């Protein structure tokens, strides 16, 4: 089976974006290597979660406290909680922990600068894959998420409590996939799939590009629903419309990098 390299910006992007497609491929024997770029500690509900932990709100389904054992309850503990949901998602997909690379900083051990550049990320993924013996040849596919295009090309979101601005991780993930395809390997742009996460909330991030509609099928659909339900706590709270829309959807939506390049779109 053709190998699949997966680049996930935040926990739950893989569930909403392409869990049916990925799960079906993995079940068929495809080798998979996953890179999680962040632990999602900058999510909208992080501050609320922290306050609940500090107040000892035992009625909260998310009550977990100082998960990284650093003596304080902060956004990195929230990130650790979100990482746990991601781990549960990977278990359902049948992806072993040896095939997952965590680049977030929930436990203070990220191998990369949190304000990473696209070039540094692509280089890290390339070297890690080489060292792990994961093939990056012409038959390999890359699964990641659709970037912001057009006016959204400059989109940023505010970071953690240090109130810094960091680049939109969806764009970084897509750009790293492009670099891996064009500069670092023999992977064709037609084998780079950019899946639409926001399509399920009717906020499609690729309105101009040609779209592939990927039917999950009965087996893929069941897998997809199981994976999404691993985010029934924090993932659902953070993006309720996307969660509900993705759970109902029978399709996953993607454009290939080649389609975007052919359309003259940039990100």
Write a brief structural summary.
By secondary structure, this protein is of the alpha/beta class. It has helices at about 15-25, 45-55, 75-95, 120-130, 170-185, 215-230, 235-240, 240-250, 255-260; strands at about 5-10, 30-35, 100, 140-145, 155-160, 165, 190-195, 210-215, 250-255.
Structure description:
It is a single chain. The chain is an alpha/beta fold and 267 residues long. It has a single domain (4-262), classed as Rossmann fold (3-Layer(aba) Sandwich), CATH 3.40.50.10320. Helix content is 40%, strand content 14%. α1 links the parallel β1 (4-8) and β2. α2 crosses α3 and α3 packs antiparallel against α6. The protein is globular, with a radius of gyration of 18 Å. 46% of the residues are buried.
Number of helices: 9
Question: Between the first and last Cα atoms, what is the distance in angstroms?
Answer: 31 Å
CATH C-level label:
Alpha Beta
Sum up the overall morphology in one term. globular
Order of helices and strands: EHEHHEHEEEHEEHHHEH
Secondary-structure arrangement, i.e. CATH architecture = 3-Layer(aba) Sandwich
β content, as a range?
5-15%
Structural class: alpha/beta
CATH superfamily: LmbE-like
Biggest pleated-sheet summary: 7 strands, mixed
CATH topology: Rossmann fold
Q: Describe the strand arrangement of the main beta sheet, using strand numbers.
A: 3-2-1-4-7-9-8
Low-confidence stretches: 150-167
As a percent range, the share of helical residues equals: 40-55%
Please, how many domains?
Answer: 1
Total count of strands:
9
Q: Name the average pLDDT.
A: 82
The rounded Rg comes to: 18 Å
